[in-house]
Amino acid sequence: MVMLYVKLKRKEKDIKELQDLGVVAPTWLRDLEIFEYFSDLDEKLCVYCKYELTAEVFKLSSERVKKIVSKMKK
User: Fold this and answer.
1) Where residue 69 falls among pLDDT bands split at 50, 70, 90?
2) How far apart are alpha carbons 69 and 49 in whole angstroms?
3) Which backbone phi and psi does 50 adopt, to 5 degrees?
C-alpha cells in the first residue's frame, strides 16, 4: 500500500517548484508537514489527543487535521 503521503513526499522538490510558479496550492506542502508531525507524535497518545495537539501547533481545527491525516493515509 502506497499512501498519498509517500507519493507526495517523493515529489516534494517538484511540488515546491510548482508552488513557486503558482501552479500548485501551498496547502500541499503544509499538509505534508501536518501528516509528518501527527505521525511523529507519541503512539501512547490517543488519536483524538494527536488531532488536538497537531491542530494547536498548526492553528487549525482538529476536524481539519483529521481530514488531512485521513487524506494522506489513502
Assistant:
1) very high
2) 14
3) -65, -40
Confidence (pLDDT) at 39: 92
Q: How far apart are CA 63 and CA 58, in angstroms?
A: 12
Residue with C-alpha cell 510558479? 21
CA 2/CA 18 separation, integer angstroms: 23
Sequence-ordered strand ranges (E) for 1-66: none
Nearest CA to 51 out of 38, 39, 42 is that of 38
At residue 72, does pLDDT exceed 80?
yes
Phi, psi of 23 (to 5 degrees): -85, -30
50 within 8 A of 38, measured Cβ to Cβ: yes
Dist CA 30 CA 39 (whole Å): 14
